[in-house]
Write a structure and sequence with these properties.
Order of helices and strands: EEEEEHHEEH
Strand order of the largest sheet: 1-2-3-4
Number of helices: 3
Strand content: 25-35%
Largest sheet: 4 strands, antiparallel
Number of strands: 7
Helix content: 40-55%
Shape: rod-shaped
Structural class: alpha+beta
Distance between the termini: 13 Å
Radius of gyration: 23 Å
Length: 125
């Protein structure tokens, strides 16, 4: 039977026989199911930045330096809040357990990989 490719994108190749992720190869004959998992991004540092900015502005100041400091810390907090992304995973299940095959911050990419793996499982019959 000829090997059919379902996805070849971003260092991940899914065929009817295997899933290649970088140098790791998973045999499709051993894959029983696939699922999506998410690890939420930590927002601790941005929240601390906001709290420091608010605490700095809370006190009455005769000087503009603390105000400029609070604005700078708030901007850093906003940037961190925007730039920190959730991690998305493709989890492959087999008779030997489960493994995180693919990790990425792009949810759409992870869904395309999962769809390709599901199509590969279906094509096996």
């Amino acid at each position: 039977m000829e090997e059919r490719t379902f996805l070849d994108e971003g260092g991940v190749k899914v065929t009817n026989a295997r899933v290649l992720v970088g140098s790791q190869t998973y045999a499709m004959s051993g894959v029983t199911s696939v699922k999506h998992a998410v690890e939420p991004a930590s927002r601790t540092v941005p929240v601390v930045c906001f709290l420091v900015a608010v605490a700095t502005l809370y006190f009455d100041h005769q000087d503009t330096n603390p105000i400029l400091f609070a604005i700078a810390v708030a901007v850093v907090g906003i940037l961190l809040w925007v730039l920190v992304k959730d991690k998305h995973f493709v989890i492959l299940h087999s008779s030997s357990g489960e493994s995180r095959a693919v990790t990425h911050t792009d949810r759409g990419f992870i869904h395309r990989v999962i769809q390709a793996i599901n199509n590969s499982i279906i094509s096996r019959g």
